[in-house]
Structure formats: C-alpha cells, structure tokens
Amino acid sequence: MDKLHFGVAYYDEYMPTSRVDQDIDLMKKAGVTVVRIGESTWSTLEPRDGVFDFTSLDRVADAMGQAGISVIVGTPTYALPTWLVKKHPQVLATTQTGQNRYGPRQNMDITDPAFLFHAERVIRAQIGHLAGHPAVIGYQADNETKHYNNFGSAVQLRFVEQLKARFVTTDALNAAFGLDYWSNRVNAWEDFPPVEATINASLAAAYAEFQRSLVTEYLAWQVKLINEYKTPGQFVTHNFDFEWRGQSFGVQPDVDHFRASKPFDVVGIDVYHPTQEKLTGAEIAFCGDLARTLKRDNYLVLETEAQGYPEWVPFPGQLRLQAFSHFASGANMVEYWHWHSIHNSFETYWKGLLSHDLQPNATYDEAVVWGNEVARLGPHLVNLKKTNRAAFVVSNNALSAIAAHKFYFRDLGYNDILRRLYDAVYRLGIECDVLGPDEDFTPYELLFVPGLYAASDRELERLASWTEAGGTLVASLTSGFANEHVKVRTADQPGILSRALGAHYRQFTRASALPLTSKWNLAKADNVVDGWFELLESDGAEVLARYDHPHWGKYAAVTLNRFGRGWGAYLACQPSPALAEAAVQDLLTRTGQLATLGHPTWPVVRKTGVNSLGRRLAYYLNYSDSASKVPYRGLRGKELLTDRGVNTGETLTLERWGVAIVEEDRLGL
Amino acid sequence: MDKLHFGVAYYDEYMPTSRVDQDIDLMKKAGVTVVRIGESTWSTLEPRDGVFDFTSLDRVADAMGQAGISVIVGTPTYALPTWLVKKHPQVLATTQTGQNRYGPRQNMDITDPAFLFHAERVIRAQIGHLAGHPAVIGYQADNETKHYNNFGSAVQLRFVEQLKARFVTTDALNAAFGLDYWSNRVNAWEDFPPVEATINASLAAAYAEFQRSLVTEYLAWQVKLINEYKTPGQFVTHNFDFEWRGQSFGVQPDVDHFRASKPFDVVGIDVYHPTQEKLTGAEIAFCGDLARTLKRDNYLVLETEAQGYPEWVPFPGQLRLQAFSHFASGANMVEYWHWHSIHNSFETYWKGLLSHDLQPNATYDEAVVWGNEVARLGPHLVNLKKTNRAAFVVSNNALSAIAAHKFYFRDLGYNDILRRLYDAVYRLGIECDVLGPDEDFTPYELLFVPGLYAASDRELERLASWTEAGGTLVASLTSGFANEHVKVRTADQPGILSRALGAHYRQFTRASALPLTSKWNLAKADNVVDGWFELLESDGAEVLARYDHPHWGKYAAVTLNRFGRGWGAYLACQPSPALAEAAVQDLLTRTGQLATLGHPTWPVVRKTGVNSLGRRLAYYLNYSDSASKVPYRGLRGKELLTDRGVNTGETLTLERWGVAIVEEDRLGL
Amino acid sequence: MDKLHFGVAYYDEYMPTSRVDQDIDLMKKAGVTVVRIGESTWSTLEPRDGVFDFTSLDRVADAMGQAGISVIVGTPTYALPTWLVKKHPQVLATTQTGQNRYGPRQNMDITDPAFLFHAERVIRAQIGHLAGHPAVIGYQADNETKHYNNFGSAVQLRFVEQLKARFVTTDALNAAFGLDYWSNRVNAWEDFPPVEATINASLAAAYAEFQRSLVTEYLAWQVKLINEYKTPGQFVTHNFDFEWRGQSFGVQPDVDHFRASKPFDVVGIDVYHPTQEKLTGAEIAFCGDLARTLKRDNYLVLETEAQGYPEWVPFPGQLRLQAFSHFASGANMVEYWHWHSIHNSFETYWKGLLSHDLQPNATYDEAVVWGNEVARLGPHLVNLKKTNRAAFVVSNNALSAIAAHKFYFRDLGYNDILRRLYDAVYRLGIECDVLGPDEDFTPYELLFVPGLYAASDRELERLASWTEAGGTLVASLTSGFANEHVKVRTADQPGILSRALGAHYRQFTRASALPLTSKWNLAKADNVVDGWFELLESDGAEVLARYDHPHWGKYAAVTLNRFGRGWGAYLACQPSPALAEAAVQDLLTRTGQLATLGHPTWPVVRKTGVNSLGRRLAYYLNYSDSASKVPYRGLRGKELLTDRGVNTGETLTLERWGVAIVEEDRLGL
Fold first, then answer.
1. Which residues of chain A are within 8 Å of residue C244 when distances are taken between CB atoms?
2. Strands (DSSP E) found in B444-528
3. What is the mean pLDDT of residues A347-360?
4. Which of B348, B359, B366 is best to mutate for the C interface (most C CBs within 10 A)?
5. What residues does C569 pair with on adjacent strands?
6. Which residue among A474, B276, B440, C268 is least packed, with the fewest CB closer than 10 Å?
7. What pTM was computed for the model?
C-alpha cells in the first residue's frame, strides 16, 4: 500500500434516502480516501434466490470512483437473507442451546453445504461484477468471522474423525485426555458422545481448537474464490477482531489469528475501545501489535469507532489522537464504522462519524482536522516499519484451557492475565510484537509470557533454551502448568520453566487484597494481589516480593533468576495494575532493559519506527486531559504537524490529548 | 355508580372450610359493601368439560344478597383448568422460550380457537346463570389480561397479514423499518421470518403493538358476550394493571389502555404499592390519574393490598390514608385483594385483610375505621369530579421502542423517565390527567411529555402547535427522536419539537453522577444526572442548567423557551429525584403555573374536585410518620371526618399518616 | 469397626502412569489404613456392554492387601459409560429444563429399567469379583446419590399413583393442597397435569418428598444386591452429603437421610468446609451430629478435603485439627477425597493430599503427623460414644415447603434458619444430636426446633407435650405455620406450639438491619435482625427482646415461657449470628442448661464422649490462629497427644489451631 488511508464503512442500502453525492462532499472535505461497501448486505444484493441486484453497489462505486475515493468490497456473507433460511433452515448453526434463530448476524453454520453453495454463488456474482471497477482497490472476505459456537452433529463427526486421525486408538485418546474420570472413557470411536456438555477440559479445549480450524478453513475458501477474480494491485483482507470485553482486547477465543491470517494479502482488524476519561491507547496498541506481527507488515484498521457507544463520544482532541495512535502502531488505514448513524434496527446507537441528522458535528469536525493533516503528511507516515526487541507470546490453547477450568479460575481469564502484564509494559513505553508460541524467538531479547497455562514440552523447552542463551523471560502465573492436551504436568511447577526461573511451587491458593512485602513504594490500595496465587519457593532466584501473610509469608511472589546468559523472571500472582507496573519496572531495571527499550513517560506514550523515506519517526501521544511535557531523546528532526525543528533533549509540550510526530533529519537505521 | 364502595375479593372456593356467614359478619362490621367473586376459578366452576357447578357462586351470591352486600362477578378465564390443557394442549401459548407449561395463571393463547370456544361456553354458562341475581351489580371480564408474550405461529401469520395490509409492498416495509440492515430485508411476503429473535427495533415495536391489539380484541369479545346477559344498571369492567416494577406504576407495556378500555362501562384497575417508610401516594395518584382519564369518569380500584407482601404490612394509619388517597383521585371503590389470606399454593404470603387465622387483626381493625367513616360520608365523597389543567402525555409505542433499544438504553426504561418527572410534579401538588398521544390537548394549559421517543410527525406537530398557541410544554430526554415506525429522524433533535423548545442537539453521551451548574441549591448527592444525557445547544431558549464538566459544560441540561404565546421547556437528561423537582419548580415558577396549579406542601398532598353535591372537596393527605401542618387555602367549609368548621387561611394539623377532607360550604365551580 | 481409620479415595484409573507401589510407600509413611476404590469408574470397569475388566481394581486391591491397607469398594454407578447412553438414551434423566446430556456425573434416571438392568449387572460382576478379597472390609453403594431432579413422565405417573393411593379421591387431594387456587383443581386423576411448572407449594413439596423416596428406594436396592455378596465382618455404607452451600451444611434437600440410611450397616458422609480464616469446625460438628444420630452409632467420613478448593489449602495445623474434630464428633474414619490431584478433566483444582506433582508437600506432611498420632492412640479414640441431652429437630418437609415459597422467603432458606441457631449453640459448647421430627424425644431435655415451617398436628403436639412434661423447647421463626401438606394453619401462630410458648402472632413483616431492645450488650452492627420477622405478642411468656421500632416496638422478638414443668422459648426473627448467640445464652442461663450442658469457651470447642475403654474423653479444639487457654473441668486424666497428666481445674494451653485430648483416669459414666 502506498498511501495512508482514511476510510469509512458506507452503506447506501441503509440510508433513509440515497444521498451519495452529498456524502461524498462531506467525505472529500474530511479527507476520506476509501470506503468499504457490500459487507452484510446479502439480502439487498441477492433479493431472491439466484437473482442479483448490483444497483446500490454500482451507484456507490461509480460515484466514489469519480470522486477519487477508493473502494473496498466486502463479501456479504456474514448475515443471511430470509429466503435462504426459509428454504434451507439448516444454514442456521446449532449451538449448545439449540439451533440459532433468524434475526441476528453471525448465526450460520459456516460448514453447511447449502450455505457454502449459496455463499459461493453470491461471492462469484458480486466480485465478478466489481473486480474490474477502477475504484476497487481490494476486498474484504466476510467480516469478524467466527465459528458461532457450532455444535452441529456434522461438525462433531468431523471432530471425531480428526481425533481418530490424531490418536488412532481410543486408548491413546483416553490416556491423553484422562477420560476415565467420571466414566467419560471412550472404548470405541462409534461410542463417542456429543461434546457440548463435556466436563473434560482437555476435550473442551480440543473442540475449541477444532472450532477455530473451521474459521481458518472457511476464510481460506473465501480468499481462494476472490483470488480468482482480483486484478493486479488489488488486495484481499479480513476484518479480524479480538476478545470482546466490552472493548477489543486480547487473544480472540474463537479464531486462531496466526493461522487464519495466512492466505490474506494484508491483515485488517477492528479496534473498539473506551474513550473520555478511559482513553489510554492500550487497546489500540495491543491490537495493532498483534495485527502487525501476523505478517510482519503494516495492517489496516478496518473498523474503529467514531462516536460508538454513547459513552464513547470523544472529548475534543481524542478522535485525532486515536487516529495517530493507530498510525504510530503501523496501521496504514483508519476506517470508521461507520460513516452515518443507522436510523433503524439494532446498532442505532453505535454512532457513526455523522449522527442521524447526517450533518457535521463536533466529532466530524475533528475528523476533518486529522484527515487533512494526514492528507498532507501521508508520505511521511505510510508504511512505518518497526523492529521490536521485545515481544509477548500468546496462546489460543492456553486461553481455551483456562476457560475450560472456569469453575476454579472464576473470573480470572487468560486475557485478564495477559492484559495486566501488557498494560504494565505499555505504560513503561516498551514497544512489543505479539507472537504465537510456535514462532521464532531469536530476533528478540525480551519475551513476556503471561498465563501460558497449556503448552507442549517442546514449547516450554524452546523458551527455556532461548532464555539460557541470553534472553530475558518474564513469565506469569499458571504458565507451564499443563501440556498441550491440557493434562497437568507431574513435574515441579512452573513445569519445565522451573529451571529457567530458579523457583518452583507445589501448592497455590486464593486471596482477596493480599499485600506484598517488597521495596516498591506503593499506596496501600495498590499493593495487593487478588484471586489465584502460587506458593513459590526460590531455588536460587532472587525474591523481589513476598506475600505479607502470617502463613504464606515464606513464599515468593516475584522472582528474578540468572539463567545461563539470560534472565528468568516470574510473577506468581495477579497483581494490581500499579503493582504489576512496579514489578516489571524493577525487573527490567535490574536486567537493564528498561533503559534500552523503555520510555517511561506515562501518560505520554512514545512509539517509533522508520518511515518509507528511511527516516526514524517518533510519535508522542498524550493520553491525558492535561497538557504534558516530555523530553525528546531522538536525533535532530522536525515535528511534522507543526513543521517545526526539534533538537535532541528539547522538551516537547503536548496539549491535552495531543500528538507530536518527530521525523529525524538523518536517514534512520 | 351512586355509592362509594368498600370491596373485597372473596374466594369461597379457596377456604379451608366454608364460612360465608362468619365472614359476612366481619365484613358488615367493617362496612364492606361489595365482593368480587368467580375470577380465576374455572376448574371449580366447570370441573369437567361442559359440566358446570354453580354451588359455590350461588352460596356466596345468595348470602351476600341477603346481607345487603353487592356482588361483582368475574369471568373465570384467566387460569386454565387441567382438563382443557389435557385435551387441547395448544391452548398454552408459545413464547420466545417455547410453549408455556401447566401451573401458572396467564399462560394461555387468547387467540386460540379451542381456548375461545371453551371460554365462551363457560362465560355464557356463568353469566347466564348469575345475571338475574339481585345482588349482582356488575361484571369483571377476565383479569389483568395481557398477551402473555404470544409468539405462536398463528398470531405471527396474522401479524404479517396486518403488515401486508398496511405496507402493501415489502419494499415499503423494508424502507420504513430499515430491514436492509444485517440482511433482514424481506423480498417477498412469503419469506417473512419469525420475529421472536429479531434485532430490528422497528419490527419489535410493531410486533409489541400488534400483541397489544390482541388484548384489545379479546377483551372486546368478552364484553360483547357479557353484554348479551347484563341487565339494566349492571356494569362491565376490567381490572387493568400497570407496569409491574415490584409495584404498580407507569404505562403497561402489554396493553393499550386507551384502546382496550373503550368497550367497558367503567374502568377498573389494580394498584399495589410499597407502604411503611416507602408510602408516598405516588403510585395511587398516577394509576388513578390514568384510570380517571381513560373515560373522563370515576373508576374502581378492583384490587389493592390490605397487607400484601410481608414488607407491606401497613403502619397504623396507613391503610386508612391509602383508602382516602384513592377516593381523592376519583375512585368510587376500594377493593382489597383479598379478604382472607390463602392457605395453600402460591400467593400464601400476599396477605389479605384477614391473616390465615381468619380473625380480626390490626390491619382489619383499621379497615373497620375507614369503612365506617366512608359509610357515613359516602354521599359527600362519591363521584368526585376533577377538571385538571395539567396532563401527562404517555405512549405505549415510545415505551416499546425504548425497550427495543435496551442494549443502549440499559436500565433506563420509558417508565423510569416518566416516573422521574411524574414524582416531581406530584410532590409539587399539581394534579394531572394522563393522556395518550392522540388525544385532544386543548382543555389543558400544561403538558408533561416524558421520553416520547417514538412519535409520528403529526403527533409532534400537534404538540408544537398547541405550545405555540399558549400551552406550556415540559418535554424530557429522547422525546421526538424517532418516528412512529421507530425510524430515527434526520431532523435536528428533539425532532420537530426543536423549534418549540428553542434548542437542539446532535450528540449525546452517558454519565455517572454528573453534577449540573444551576441556581438551584441542592445537596451534592442530589445534584446529579445519571446515564444518558443529551448535548443540548440553545437556539434562543434560556438555559436553566448546564453540565458541570470540562468538555460538556458548554451544553445545556435544562432549558425554557418562549414560543408564540406558550412556553417550551426541556430536560435533556435523567436528573436525580430532587433535581427533577427543583427543575420543574423553577420552570413552573417562571411560567407562573406553580402558583396557579400547584400546592407544594409535601409531605402533605392536596387533591381536589367537586362532589356530587356540587361542592368543592379538598383532601389533605399526610404521607409522613410525623404530624404535619398545612394551610387551608379554600373557601370556608367543614372538615368532614371531624365534622368541624374550617376557615380560609386556617392551619390544618394532620396526624402521622393522617387525612383531612374539607368540603366548601358554597356550591363549587 | 474396631479401628480408627485414615483413608483416601484412590483412583488408579486416573493416574497418568500406574504407580501403586510408590503411592503405597507414601501412604504407609502417613499412616493410611484404608482406601476407597471403584466409585464412578464404570467405563473402565465395563468398557463395552457386558465385558468386564478388573485389572485396575485387582492391581490396587492386591497391592493394598499386601501392604496391610484395607479396601472399601465403591459401586461405579454414579457416572454413566458412553456406550450405555448411546444404546439407551433414556437413561439420562429428564428434568424441568429437558433431558440431561452426556458429560457430567449424576445425570441418570435412577428409576429407568435400562439403567437398573445395567447397574445391577455391573454391581454383581464387580462385587462378585471382589467380595472374597481379604483386603476388602466394606462397600460403598453408589455415591452422593440424589434424584437428579427427575421429572420424567414415568416417575410422574408413579407420583400420581401414590397420590391416588394416599388421597383416594381428587376432592380430598384438592382440599388438602388447595388446588382450586388459580384453577389448579384436578377433577379426575387422568387429568393430572405435569408438575414441573406447578405454582402450588403443597404439590411442589409433595413431589420433592416423592423424589426423595426414589433415592431411598434406589439405595435400598443397591444394598440388597451387595448384601448377597458381602461376607461376615464386611459392611455396606453410603456417602451421604448435605446441602451444598459452597460447603457442606444442613438438611439435604434431595435425600431423606433418616429413611435412606436405614438399610446400611454404617453411615458414611462427606464434609467439605472452608479453612484458612474461615475454619470454625461448625460444618464438621453439624454433619457429624446428624450422621451419628442416624444410627445412634459411630460413622465414617468417607470424603473430606485435603487441599480442596485453592482457597481451602489449610494453614499449618488445620489439617490435623480437622481430623481430630471429626473423631471428636464420633467419626471412626477420616478419608480424603482424594489421594492425588487429578491431571485432566473437571476436578483438576479440587486438590488431593498430593498435588499434581505426586510428591510430598506441606499438607501431606501434616497428614503424616496426625496419621501417626492416630496410629498410636487409635484404641483410645475409636468408637467414641456420646449421650447428648440436647438435640436439634430437623425436617426435610419444612425445607421443601420454605423452598416452595421462595418468592416470599427470598434468600431465607430452611438451612439458613437452622444454621443461625446451630452456630449459636455450637459456639456455646452444647453438644447435640440431630433428629427427624418423628423420633423419640424422651431421652432429651433440650430441643432446638428451627424453622419447622411444615409439620403435622401430631408432630407439634408431641413437641408441646414433651415441653409440658419438663423439656426445654427453643423454637424459631416460621415454626408450626403450616401442616404436613403445607396448608397454613388457621390457628394462632406458631400453630399448636403457641400454648407451649405462651405467645402468638397474627402478622409478620420484613426488616433490614432492625435493632432489638434487650439487656444483651451487643455492638450496634450485631444488634440486628434481617428479613422476615413476626409480630409476636406475649400471652404470659417473658419478653427478653423487643423490636426497636416506632410501630413494631410493642411486639416481642424473643420470649421464654414456663409451661408445665418445662420451658418454651421462641425466636420470632432471624437474628445476626452474635444476636442469636446472646439470645440462646440468655435463654439457657435462665433455664439453667448453659451451666449443665454448655462449655462456652469459644474459640476453643470441647467435645466429649466415652471411649471403648470405658473412659471419658474430652477433646479441646482451638479454632483460632492464636494460642488459647481453656480450663480443664473434667476429672484427673492424661492428655493423650503429649502423654501428660492433667488435673481438674488446670489450664490447658492450645497452640494456634491446636488440639488436646484428655482421657480421664477413672472409668467413665
């Protein structure tokens, strides 16, 4: 991609009255360069079985083309038309609670032959029709695809076939999954029971992984179809999303991003996050870090909120800050969902850039500001490349395994452990990649491994070896506990990693607001761990914090161990946010990496990279409702937004929710 | 009705042993004048298919008649007999969660032919048998009728037929309801999908309105049947109830009271409300105001609690205060549900006037007091007429529309908005009628329009014109936003009303305990708005309060606008109760109407009217556990309960939970 | 049983690799004397329909036998094998929410013929195979058996047959259950509707009782089968559990312990309870008191936690204190569930004595301590006999009746009322038996009757007569209210008991933190009652506490009445724990029984009995994280753990969570 894009999702179909020209005027004023169309409009595109109507798509594509605005065409398959459900009711997926009903989106069985037959036909018709259009620069295959909790009998049969292929005998399966427990033992493949009510965590996690593979397969199938039509220069992307926690964050339980992203030309994501007093940039950073790492390349923000939830209407300055936050993470596009607020149906109050009055408003006015800035500065900002020395290692399997033990872990999910550590690292100004457990760790000198509950021996041994060879490993609670089949290890815990960490534990318990004994000077309310914690004993590691408790006081909470040429650090508990930050700060001060990799100037976050002109850029992003000052530590350069020279050591002043972007004069590393 | 009635629901069928004579002795002592019988006793009345047994009804009617106590006969149809369900299982309605099961009341499909066939037969048998009985003064058709969330396939087919009749083409429907969104577009009537899982708010609200029409139709059908039997002087009524919020209040989501009440001779209601420290009279007032307005006539309180929930056992004085509160609102009957507490089954602890011991108790003893007072004063109290200059405008459609957007409005329902405003007005002593949006506003000078989220252009224009012509309009948040099909307007908000209010908004957001900047002197805890609020901008209106917030401080929260010869006021947020009262007090002080229509002497509430002797009555009701003093501002008259003269300007002293009723000596207006 | 047992549940089947010999070494070191095997392993024992595999059972039984460890064989029937469900899907019970699904334990229809056929066959095969094994000392029939909420049509037909047998006519049934209410009247047996959605509390309670009878019947059937095989000296037991309240306590809603325990040779129970700061011994005491009373004999603790939930990992000293607490209540066995922590599936984090590493840990080390103490002292501790003069009277029917009125009782359940009173009595050091309402009260001088909501006239009259004859009756709120059919009495309340208590009430209400007026000197936060309370009026009883309230202040909250030669005391409310203790303390000080039966030295609890050597033992159990002192009031004796002489009047010092056991030198009473 050679251009930084400002995009909006545009639904001519949803407009009370067609007003493409009026909208294009407002778009051009704001600097909009691309619209996404077509997604989820199957019932308009194919009003009757086999009858297609391209009126709306053509009208928009033509008008945009004439206005110099590019178009991304979304396949319409993520919501079902009524006639298809009427004729082939089996296209609605069956979940644990019965068959889905008509009405919502994302309720289909993505493996059902009747669904696939009709999906293929409409994709071929739509993409075939539009592929040659000069305005079209790319395609989005489906949207936020998941497996929709598919427990239909056909997919369950496939699951058993896969288990059979993997384990060959039921004895091997029984041993790996511990199925003797509560008489769950399977003594013949044909006896295999439905899994929707299983109480076996190994089986539940294996089924979750299988369900994710359905998504990988389905998306690859759509890409293959689209690839038959796409012309040179066009790309195929997908709008991947993250765990929905009232906001976007963390590993997506229902999709294996690492596998599902492979067939795409470019990675797209959506990022929705709180604003107003709650805007920290952490969700933008994490989602961007993962998206960027998937293909080690720039990515597209295919959806993010303009106004969003009523409580997310941005304060003045925030919309602009958000846009630059995405670009600073390596995004080449920021696209709002959606241009106009919807006048009927469900997402009426998930507000777009325009309110329902379809007129400019304070939020639109701010988009005009950053849209024009980006139009001016695009060549300096596009294709920002990063070479991070630190990374998080994340795992779908660990997530599913912890979820399968929810009865015991309670409200502590995998992404809670991940986020607690990520937020600490983020606030310390350490930029990270986000890796799956199978990837090459050698480019990194610092790895964060939160809650890697389920992992194979090989995975853990690779981490240990990498540490011994000079890496700094920061692992946290539950890591290493179970193997890839979610069988708990009989080894000392944290299984296999224990040696690298110089510590082990045999027991764990739970606490409520338990304080730690440490040298960190924290307020009483911050000096607490909650929930699950491990009774860690040092085997040589330095103990940085202990539990402040009459009986557990002899156990360690945070340790640091010299291991070969590297360092192994462990957090045996879920600390408060401030405590997590203090612990990581202390650990990385001792290893020296806070000085080399960090930029602890919160609430100002620095993000850097090298632009396509070969120069180092440093973004300074002020996540605060007050003006902030921050020292500039780069080489002499220019603040691009103000077009003002900046010298090394100079103090940059950022207004509330403000941004500065310094481009070094010298060509970068 | 020429008599003020003290009634009780009486179930001879439920008695451990028959004791009609003993009960009549206790009733006569208390002044009971009427009993309601028959309601919900189908399985006793028709023990086998087509076999009727009138023993119990006859015994009670005869004994009451001999004792001079009148009888209201309730049709038994609100609970199904076992044999009917056994033979015709389809009489149990199907809801979103499947078919209802035997056990509870109110689980039937009121449109099912098998149900209607058997209901008609039992009604004809029962009413035919009792119509000529001299004790019978009237009938109650069914009880608290609703649609019971009927989503059966037969009623859904009728719904589609009605849509087809209204919209003719699916294109028109798709446009009105915005069905293109998420591929919900219907391209042929025969494709119409089941609506139970719809995510389209327009469709959901339309179905809710359709469901309410089923209730209107069913009740009219029962009235028609009964009318074939009723003799001159007998009346037909229904026991309408209100939204159940742990107490009776607000617009009933499942019934259109305005339409459903038409065929009845007299309106009946039930009112259940908290007592003890929580007794304020507000529920009695609102429910009475609506009931009285439906036919612009007196109404019957067919059910209210004697003891009710255990936590509602009245403090000494409260039972009497409650009875007079009803009469002061225009009720001609106060009937307890129920005479005796029930010894088995479900409502065992919804206590009657007698406890399970069937002996006098403190609550019964107090009923004896007011029963005898009313027996003495009846001719002064019966048929109290009011001519209110103020009214609330309420809307079933707005309620359904807000409910359909619950995902965004969260715990803010229509009746929450209504109640916040009603309580403020009630405490300021302004007596109101309660109108539907279609009614004639010309008799009024002051209209309160809370949360009129969905309304047609015509409805809003009528309100604006009425204001311009001299009315005072007090509207509150979300009003005017969407049209009658729940399509959000593209106009400036509050759509169409904006001109009358001299203010508009384009954005809204949410808050938690956000203070306002105003001249009202409120405690910090009271000076807060919560949840949804609108970023209102004045176009000329005077701003009485703004948000106290660094970014939203420039927007208005409460405004008042001179519009033609009238006033348009707007509350753009959901204030705390005290804040709502302060705002309304300020607004109506400025318009002058607090002085002319109000009586702000809370906790003493004054209610007035003209009795059938042509004299003005003023009730003074002390909702307080302490004695209160209140100035008497009427003409010289007599306090009826004490038979004592009262002069203008005299101070009335009310004991804790006390009552005074002053009848002016002069014939009233 | 002639030996005090230290047991563990042992699942060779669940081990990652077989390690019986290694486990036996660790067991022998700790003093383990018995293992329970076989329970819930049907799919291993009978891998295919009719094919049995005893490998695992034989391996364990042989190895244990050689090591001198005894074996209890559990029948495997509490979890279903996959093949059985595949072939006969009807073995999964149908509940109110549909048919159960495969996966969990305890999901079967224990009355289904296909289930019973296969259960019988596997039991005969297993027990037939192992009965002659020299290590086997006994059998456990099934495990924690319940009715699993069985609402299948076959059992419902049986229920109606039983009603018909009991009531003969539907008229009699209608009268007893008050079915006329809401048209629930049944006019022909063939009309009887399904009961799963009933709103009739009488019917609900009767069905609950019927469901409990299914458990009684099923367990008797298993015992009969096993008895055909058991050899002299072997016993048959069952693992009864209690209401699961996040811990074991109270009357089990789904089992009638009094009836179901009859066919067994010895009573077994499981007791799971909080530890750490929350260890009080109350659950151990209550469950033991009930278990001991069932057969007036010693009992087995077949399951209790070693580590249990993560938050239950014991503090140092607690595991040992818990074991002695069981023995002090009359247990002859303490068996942990389970030996090793499970590496897969569901109860992975319900930790055993060994953690997943299968190595010694702090908890195991403490088991070694008490295991060896018990091995040494066993002959002094085994078969401890008690002759209590005080008892609680508990009732399954009262529990079901209160549960059926949950809408009104809210979060106040029967076991809440029971526990509030039991905890008070326990802390005052009064040892109690726990009786059903039908039992002989003459051996007792003090009866506690909490919340006996539903009871027959005969039951209440027996209590009244026993009181009049010299007993001290302490009853609490709701007692006597309804008869055995859950029909509320028309008598003064507390029905029939009113005379014995010298007080009555006609009304009741609810409160939140309502204080009492009394002479007890309680902190403000403790001097409160919550929820339901009765407006009690004395008819001669002394009033020890009144409600501190402007209107309810004239009513009594706690009364004591001289009745004949006895005392009748009543708590008309649910007091705070401290208030309950103060009330009971005052009551029993006045009756003199605190001095004769109590030992109010909390947090040290004394439990006594006579051992099989004919000597009185007194256990002193310190439920505190601090050392405590307690006066020794027995005759001269020896502290067994330290082998040190103790004189009367001497002060015993107990370390934190410490234990002392004094055996009197003289032969006991």
1. none
2. 446-449, 472-476, 503-514, 516-518
3. 97
4. B348
5. C474, C560
6. B440
7. 0.97
What Cα–Cα distance (Å) separates residue A159 from each residue in A202, A203, A204, A418, C82? 14, 11, 12, 29, 17
CB C63 within 8 A of CB C54: no
Tell me: pLDDT of B514 over 70: yes
Residues in chain A with CB shorter than 8 Å from the CB of B485 are 344
| Pick from A186, A198, A535: CB nearest C103 | A198
CB atoms closer than 10 angstroms to residue A538: 18
**Residue A581, burial from CB neighbour count under 10 angstroms (0-12, 13-18, 19+):** buried
For every residue of C193-250, DSSP letters joined together read PPSTT---HHHHHHHHHHHHHHHHHHHHHHHHHHHTT--TT-EEE-EE---BSSSB-S
Interface predicted TM-score (ipTM): 0.96
CA distance A561 to A569: 6
Q: Which backbone phi and psi does C153 adopt, to 5 degrees?
A: -65, -35
Out of B76, B313, B347, closest to residue C509 by CB: B313
Domain hosting residue A351, numbered range: 5-80+110-149+215-381
* Residues A647 and A635: beta-carbon distance below 8 Å: no
Q: Which of B101, B341, B344 sits opposite C194 (nearest CB)?
A: B101
CATH number of the domain bearing residue B621: 2.60.40.1180
| Count: domains in chain A | 4
> What does the H/E/C string look like for A594-636?
HHHHCCCCCCEEEEEEECCCCEEEEEEEECCCCCEEEECCCCC
Chain A: residue nearest C41 by CA? Answer: A183
Contact B492 A357 (CB under 8 A): yes
pLDDT given for residue A669 in this prediction: 55
Mean predicted lDDT score pLDDT of chain B: 97
- pLDDT, averaged across chain A: 97
Whether the CA torsion A262, A264, A265, A270 is positive or negative: it is negative
C-beta separation of B444 from B467 below 8 A: no
Tokens standing for residue C125: 């095969």
Residue type, A257: H
Residue C1 has pLDDT above 70, yes or no: yes
The answer on pLDDT for A668 being more than 70 is no
C494 and C506 share one domain: yes
Collect all residues of chain C within an 8 Å Cβ-Cβ radius of residue B359.
506
C221 and C349 in a single domain? The answer is: yes
Shortest distance between the Cα of B559 and any Cα of chain A, in A, equals 21
Q: What is the residue type of B622?
A: N
Residue A412, token pair as written in the block: 């502590």
Per-residue model confidence as pLDDT tens digits over B382-421: 999 999 999 999 999 999 999 999 999 999 999 999 999 9
Amino acid at A664: E
- Report residue C13: phi and psi, to 5°: -60, -30
Q: Which two tokens stand for residue C623?
A: 């439920």
Q: Say whether both B332 and B362 belong to one domain.
A: yes
**Residues on chain B touching C551 (C-beta within 8 angstroms):** 315-316
| Judgement on whether residues A464 and A574 belong to the same structural domain of the protein | yes
- At residue B2 the predicted structure's pLDDT band, cuts being 50, 70 and 90, is confident
C193 and C70 share one domain: no
Residue listed under structure tokens 């079967």: C108
Residue at a domain's end among A548, A569, A597:
A597
Q: Name residues whose C-beta falls within 8 Å of residue C351's C-beta, 6 or more positions apart in sequence.
A: A507, C306, C307, C308, C309, C310, C313, C341
* Helix H or strand E encompassing A24: helix A20-30
Closest C-alpha among A592, A587, A623, A593 to residue A607: A623
CA distance B411 to chain A (A): 14
User: CB B188 to CB A83 under 8 A?
Assistant: yes
- High-pLDDT (> 70) share of chain B, %: 100
User: B453, B507, B503, B449: which is closest to B478 by C-alpha?
Assistant: B453
* pLDDT bracket for residue B667 (50, 70, 90): confident
